[in-house]
Design a protein that fits this description.
The chain is an alpha+beta fold. The chain has helices at 41-59, 81-84, 144-158, 173-179, 184-189, 208-219, 224-227, and strands at 5-9, 25-26, 63-68, 71-80, 121-129, 163-168, 193-199, 229-236. It is 28% helix and 22% strand. The longest helix has 19 residues, at 41-59.
Length: 238
């Protein structure tokens, strides 16, 4: 049974330093992980908690979270584009090593204040409700993702940000299952418009994933040549 889900900015009181790939997390389970997991969880925690804390102190928040009671069941991570462009940011994925994730000492960098940033654009890094990799996910298709986006837009506009950009793909289910990236239609429903289309830098050549991606796209009437494109969706706040 899904209760009343509350949506709002993440605070330093409970820093969501890892993602919801395995399902919802709580204060009691956030620092628990399988002993046989190949991921260096302790190292990621040591890197991510100070980093997210610094970003929260500097900008007020770096994530919108959805809570069902004491469980975090949704996340929308975002960073200033100016921070994404900094040396050591890498891909800012919290569950990967540099350069896909941030460098171990990235939290030690000086993050520019909003008043110092020329391009006041926030970039959505990832959006998840429940876990896209779980067979049963009671938190999907309940409007939670849209609520988190609207909460971000309201929060950002009130603090002087000029726009929000989200990287997306055409509406191909396998993309969400693997990456947590919502499709083009979702962002258009939130008021975003297509700002740019470009080949995704990591989707080159042929491998089983790309084969499945292109086959699924073709079955949906989406051209194979469009399946690998990354779409930049933008919402202007001014």
């Amino acid at each position: 049974m899904v209760g009343d889900v509350v949506v709002g900015p993440m605070t330093e009181d409970l820093i969501l330093w890892r993602c919801l790939h395995s399902g919802p997390l709580s204060r009691g389970t956030l620092d628990e992980w399988p002993a046989d997991s190949p991921l260096p969880w302790a190292a990621y925690r040591e890197r991510n908690v100070p980093l997210l804390g610094r970003l929260t102190q500097t900008y007020g928040a770096c994530a919108i979270v959805a809570r069902d009671g004491d469980r975090i069941v949704g996340q929308l991570r975002f960073y200033p584009k100016a921070v994404e462009a900094m040396d050591g940011a890498g891909g800012l994925c919290l569950q990967q090593d540099y350069p896909s994730g941030p460098a171990d000492d990235f939290a030690d960098r000086r993050f520019p204040a909003l008043a110092e940033i020329a391009d006041r654009t926030l970039a959505v890094h990832c959006l998840m409700t429940g876990s896209p990799q779980q067979k049963e996910n009671p938190y999907q298709r309940r409007g939670i993702g849209g609520r988190m986006v609207r909460a971000l837009a309201e929060w950002a506009a009130a603090r002087g940000w000029a726009g929000i950009e989200a990287r997306a793909f055409e509406d191909i289910p396998i993309i969400y299952e693997i990456t947590g990236s919502a499709g083009r239609t979702f962002w258009e429903k939130q008021g975003f418009s297509l700002a740019a289309r470009q080949p995704h830098p990591d989707l080159k050549g042929q491998d089983p994933f790309i084969d499945a991606l292109e086959a699924q796209a073709e079955s949906m009437g989406i051209g194979r040549e469009r399946a690998r494109d990354q779409l930049i969706m933008r919402l202007d706040l001014a």
